């Protein structure tokens, strides 16, 4: 028999959900206007009022 892929469909689904969860609650925000940086659970305008904010999901950062 062929070996199964490492993740079952169910495990893969759980993994995708956990990625989405992490993405939802750990968004690194950087204001291009005042250079403020913060972590947010959802994209929002900067405290300075600027909406020119860069959003990067934390899980996209490399480990090192
Ligand atoms: Zn700002």
Description of the molecule:
The mean pLDDT is 82. The protein contains one helix and three strands. The termini are far apart. The chain has a three-stranded antiparallel β-sheet with strand order 2-1-3. With 64 residues, it is of the alpha+beta class. The chain has a domain at 26-64. Zinc ion binds at residues 31, 33-34, 36, 46, 48, 50.
For the report, how would you describe the main beta sheet?
3 strands, antiparallel
Strand content: 15-25%
Tally of contiguous helical segments: 1
Low-confidence stretches: none
End-to-end Cα distance, whole Å, is 39 Å
Hetero groups bound? zinc ion
The topology string of helices and strands comes to HEEE
Question: How are the SSEs ordered, and which strands pair?
Answer:
Layout: H1 9-25, E1 27-31, E2 37-40, E3 53-57
Antiparallel strand pairs: 1-2, 1-3
The structure holds zinc ion.
Brief overview, please?
This protein has about 60 residues and is an alpha+beta fold. It has one helix and three strands; from the N terminus they run αβββ. Helices cover about 25% and strands about 20% of the residues.
């Amino acid at each position: 028999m062929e070996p199964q892929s490492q993740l079952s469909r169910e495990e893969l689904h759980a993994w995708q959900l956990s990625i989405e969860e992490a993405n939802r609650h750990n968004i690194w925000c950087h204001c291009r206007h005042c250079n403020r940086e913060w972590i947010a659970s959802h994209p929002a305008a900067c405290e300075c009022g600027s909406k020119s904010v860069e959003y990067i999901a934390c899980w996209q950062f490399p480990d090192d």
